[in-house]
Recover the amino acids of this structure.
């Protein structure tokens, strides 16, 4: 390991040299089936020819000009995002946490400009993850991540996830908005029930609150629809996306209806790198693929196959797997055995996955996988689970 890197991550000793589709190759040339996908970032797998072409073509032309000038690639990406969503306005930034910060600023400013400056608190859910800046950590309220970094940013009230009664009771005259992940990712791959999502919309309408969705992990096609909230048949007032949007190139965005975005006038927010031409070119190329006819229905079909196969696996190895949960291709295995050890054994057997809270193994393959990749992943899971039962 290298002392020059701040040791903030518990890295595995594996180093990868190149990737192709659903596979990564390590520095010894060994091949791994990548069902971690850079934590749901490599939505189109590795080295997707269309993305490589878009990035290299843009790199020959222009890298950065700043937001002092018009941004044709950003205008195009924003227009396409609004055409395929509830939103009318998009702000581009560079990461997920920044996108959530944008949602928080937008909600406060919206209530302020509506004559309610006292409405500056946001209700969030326990088990949430919204990023690692001080304010997004304060929003999620996970004491583990905040320890020693106090004081936290004021203005957040956490309630139990999927409990509409508790949430409703937490609304006060100071509440500006509700911020929720339609599928909690880091928190253990826990989907919000569709009734909970619909209930959130109703509570926001009743009390004049903004509904904010953090779709950084579950959005951009991961659940078989462009946004996970589409499954509930409701729309938020604003949402954040990031991970899958750049397919591996850093980019984030928050988007809002015209009404919710109204206070974000000239000078109200900014980002030096936001809307960078390289990021915008790649984002447009990602949308070319994800929005193509039949792509999302294919994700949905393969997700259902994978789900059934995992259920079958869990039924056969109840000493290893307690529960299958998630949505689309954001799936979690809640484990009986320690998830960290299982992730390590799967990796040794050629399958990359990622741990999540609540002793969960996260499976978030690239959206371009084929049925054969599901077969291969199930085969490796089968081998590791089988060996585990024998060892126990
Ligand atoms: C990853 C993630 C974030 C933070 O994104 P960064 O790019 O790491 O800042 C925020 N919210 C959710 C739901 C995420 O999965």
């Amino acid at each position: 390991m290298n002392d020059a890197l701040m040791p903030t991550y518990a890295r595995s000793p594996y180093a990868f040299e190149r990737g192709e589709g659903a596979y990564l190759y390590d520095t010894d040339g060994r091949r791994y089936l990548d069902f971690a996908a850079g934590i749901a970032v490599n939505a189109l797998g590795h080295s997707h020819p269309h993305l490589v072409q878009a990035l290299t073509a843009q790199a020959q032309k222009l890298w950065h000009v700043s937001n002092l000038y018009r941004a044709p690639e950003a205008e195009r990406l924003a227009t396409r995002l609004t055409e395929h969503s509830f939103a009318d306005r998009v702000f581009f930034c560079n990461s997920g946490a920044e996108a959530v910060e944008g949602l928080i600023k937008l909600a406060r400013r919206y209530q302020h400009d509506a004559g309610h400056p006292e409405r500056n608190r946001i209700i969030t859910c326990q088990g949430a993850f919204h990023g690692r800046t001080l304010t997004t950590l304060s929003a999620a309220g996970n004491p583990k991540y905040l320890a020693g970094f106090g004081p936290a940013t004021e203005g957040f009230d956490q309630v139990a996830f999927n409990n509409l009664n508790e949430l409703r009771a937490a609304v006060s005259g100071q509440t500006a908005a509700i911020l929720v992940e339609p599928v909690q990712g880091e928190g253990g791959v826990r989907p919000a029930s569709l009734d909970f999502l619909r209930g959130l919309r109703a509570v926001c309408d009743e009390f004049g609150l903004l509904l904010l969705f953090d779709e950084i992990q579950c959005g951009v096609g991961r659940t078989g629809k462009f946004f996970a909230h589409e499954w509930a048949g409701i729309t938020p007032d604003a949402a954040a996306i990031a991970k899958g949007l750049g397919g591996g190139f850093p980019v984030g965005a928050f988007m809002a209806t015209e009404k919710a975005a109204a206070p974000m006038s000239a000078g109200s927010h900014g980002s030096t790198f936001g809307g960078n031409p390289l990021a915008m070119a790649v984002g447009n190329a990602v949308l070319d693929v994800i929005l193509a006819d039949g792509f999302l229905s294919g994700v949905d079909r393969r997700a259902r196959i994978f789900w059934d196969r995992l259920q079958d696996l869990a039924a056969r190895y109840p000493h290893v797997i307690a529960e299958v949960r998630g949505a689309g291709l954001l799936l979690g295995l809640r484990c009986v055995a320690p998830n960290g050890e299982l992730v390590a054994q799967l990796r040794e057997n050629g399958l990359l996955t990622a741990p999540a809270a609540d002793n969960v193994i996260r499976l978030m393959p690239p959206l371009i996988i084929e049925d054969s990749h599901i077969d291969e992943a199930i085969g490796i899971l089968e081998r590791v689970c089988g060996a585990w039962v024998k060892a126990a």
Notes: The first strand starts at residue 16 and ends at 20. The radius of gyration is 21 Å. The chain has a mean pLDDT of 97. The chain has two domains: 16-48+294-391, 50-290.
